Amino acid sequence: MNVGGKMVGALALILGLTSVVCAANPQEPTKKDPPPRLPPFLMEALKGTADDFIKRFDKNQNGYIKKEDFPPRLVELFTKADKNKDGKLDKKEVEELFAVLRKQY
Predict the structure, then answer these.
(1) Are 69 and 57 in contact (CB under 8 A)?
(2) What is the CATH number of domain 40-104?
(3) CA-CA distances (angstroms) from residue 24 to 12, 16, 17?
(4) CB neighbours (10 Å) of residue 65?
(5) How far apart are CA 43 and CA 56, in angstroms?
(6) Three-class secondary structure of residue 65 per DSSP
(7) Per-domain residue ranges of the chain
(8) Residue 38 main-chain phi, psi, to 5 deg
(9) Is a pLDDT exceeding 60 seen at residue 61?
């Protein structure tokens, strides 16, 4: 009787079954890709108010931010935030943008 061989075989069987069970019922939730990092100035801006943000980027001080006032690398963010598609961000749109960004970051 080969006891050592039987133990190795039993251990292999247990390990094989364990891997099948773990594959079928993973314990860890699937990980999502982390959101891309925001530029430091935008992370800092999120600490302030919508009014502060508008004052920072409103070049002609008309109370809203036009696309050309916005940093070029963030134009896509501007487009998503411009809910009424009028080509400018008013206080309400900036507040909504901040709410989304604060939740994500």
Answers:
(1) yes
(2) 1.10.238.10
(3) 18, 13, 11
(4) 24
(5) 14
(6) strand
(7) 40-104
(8) -85, 150
(9) yes
